[in-house]
Amino acid sequence: MKFKKISAIFLVVFMMASMVVGCSKPSDDAKTEEKKSDVKAEQVEKKKVFVTPEWVQSVIDGNQPESENYTILEASWGAYKDSPTYTKGHIPGALHVDIASVESEPNWNISEPKVVEKGMLDLGVTKDKTVILYGDDVSGTARVAYAYLWAGVENVKILDGGLEKWEKDGYSTDTKVEKATVAKDFGTTVPAHPEYWLSIEDAQDKLKNDSNFRLVSIRSEAEFKGETSGYDYIDRAGEPKGAVWGHAGSDPYHMEDYTHKDGTYITAAEMEELWKDCDFTKDNELSFYCGTGWRATIPWLIAYEAGWEGMTLYDGGWYQWQMNKDLPVQVGDPKSDNVEYTTVGELPTDKAAK
Q1: β-strands 328-332, 312-314: how paired?
Q2: Model confidence, pTM
Q3: pLDDT, tens digit, for every residue of 93-120?
């Protein structure tokens, strides 16, 4: 009987000692998890658009001023079920945003203010909420970021390098489908920044009458020269007369002239270097455009982050321009003798992308 009592006491002491040892010496995995759950990073300015995975995790961990009021959005076309990544694994807490919530037919321009505002409110987005965006398509993600800044969100970020860099840097993902808490009041009139947007009418006027203005094509060289429209639903190829080329790359999903191999966006200094062979500089009044307004938002955001003033997005792009048969166009390289000036109505209709 005495032996059993002593054994019982010994067993209790052993178990308590084991618990103490277990608590005082966490495993390497536990140390890693502890570190990831309390990530700290330097604060960034409100106009800083492109942010690191470390900074985003520090927001999630409550270590940034933005931690008090933020949302993370995975941007892609369609519902969350249509996303190539959201249901497979997204940043913990991230909601899905349909890119179609900020643009609409017939021209695929930014939608009417009330439509954009409703799309934001449905996601709980207000002007004071920090919005952190990421997505597989760098230009689609930039499209939403631009639209939110135009609307009036004061602090918009893009996860530089997207989900691929997030996972490469060792941060976790989740498959839980998150539900938004709908907001009732955006906090200001949409758009708060109409000056970020250029209409087709103003683009025409500035091309004719403003010698400092440059309409910058953010399209592939083949599109700029009129060899292809770049889209399977656009039959005509060319550019608005007077447009200048600003590079893009051959792949619209990766925009390799404006991104690095790891998917991060180039800096303003790198963008100036890219433009060294172009017919404009940042000292011109620049309005960027592409086919339907996605790719052109990337240089606009880089310029915005750098504090360059007076930059706009000609939202209608080539798609809206080629809808008017009387508008002037150029086909070929205007810097060479191999260029033709004509009108939309005279263009052949066999240039859709195959």
Answers
A1: unpaired
A2: 0.89
A3: 999 999 999 999 999 999 999 999 999 9
Q: Provide φ and ψ at 275, rounded to 5°.
A: -85, 5
Are the beta carbons of 230 and 223 closer than 8 angstroms? yes
Q: How confident is the model at residue 230 (pLDDT cuts 50, 70, 90)?
A: very high
State CA 151 to chain mean position distance. Answer: 15
3-state secondary structure of 42: coil
Relative to beta strand 50-51, strand 156-159 is parallel
**Mode of pairing for the β-strands spanning 50-51 and 109-110:** unpaired
How deeply is 332 buried, as exposed, middle or buried, from its count of CB atoms within 10 A (0-12, 13-18, 19+)? middle
Tokens representing residue 139 in the block: 């230009």
Those residues with Cβ within 8 angstroms of residue 275's Cβ, 6 or more apart along the chain or in another chain? 246, 247, 281, 282
Q: For residue 231, what are its two tokens?
A: 């889209």
Find all residues with CB under 8 Å of 165, minimum gap 6, and list them: 53, 159, 262, 263, 264
Distances (CA, A) of 87 to 83, 90, 165, 256, 307: 7, 7, 18, 27, 37
Active site residues: 290
Distances (CA, A) of 39 to 58, 90, 93, 345: 5, 18, 16, 58
- The edge-to-edge listing of strands for the beta sheet with 70-76 is 50-51, 156-159, 130-134, 70-76, 95-98
pLDDT tens profile 159-184: 999 999 999 999 999 999 999 999 99
Token pair 């618990």: residue? 19
How crowded is residue 169: how many other Cβ atoms within 10 Å of its Cβ?
Answer: 13
CB 236 within 8 A of CB 348: yes
Bridge partners for 95 per DSSP: 73
pLDDT of residue 11: 38
Neighbour count for residue 308 (Cβ, 10 Å) = 17
Tokens of 316: 């209608």
